[in-house]
Amino acid sequence: MTDMRTRLFRLAVITLLATVAMTMAAAAGTMFRLEIGPPVAAGTDFKQKGAVLAVRAVVCDDLSTVRVTGTAEGMVNGARQSVALRLAPIATAPGVFVVQQQWPAQGQWVLHLAGTCPSSKSEASTLVPMRKAAFLREKTQVLREPATPAQVEAALAELVRTQS
Fold first, then answer.
1. The pTM is what?
2. What is the DSSP annotation of 80-119?
3. Which has the closest alpha carbon to 112: 91, 77, 90, 81?
4. With 0-12 CB in 10 A as exposed, 13-18 as middle and 19+ as buried, what is 84?
5. φ and ψ at residue 94, rounded to 5 degrees
6. What is the pLDDT of residues 29-59, one digit of tens each?
């Protein structure tokens, strides 16, 4: 009888752990974050001159309150550079912004996009490696928290290493 109780207890623990793991995985997809896409993802305003990508905030109760800022972090001829970005909000799509080419064409660049969702007091970052005026989707890092300076530097170092 004790052996049966032990088996039932183990089964209950395994079931509980599996349920917790599935719940955590489902919840991870419902956290505030910044996603990127081609300029056409911004809708009708995508034809803005020099647009290289669109940024969309997701999972925020009030997308009209989302704030997104950005910098282009680069290495040009061995010198580190940083350029503040002006993001253009899309009036017809709250929480959507277009990023235009604002950094020098030479060198290697990573865009650091940072967003806040006031309603949930959430912050997120996305690190976007660039090749000329095109983003490298496969190397983009969508973070559900603010990027640390070390994460930004590591993304730029990796881009420099692979693009040199």
1. 0.79
2. EEEEEEPEEE-TTSTTEEEEE--S-SSSEEEEEEEEEEGG
3. 81
4. exposed
5. -55, 140
6. 469 999 999 988 777 555 566 789 999 999 9
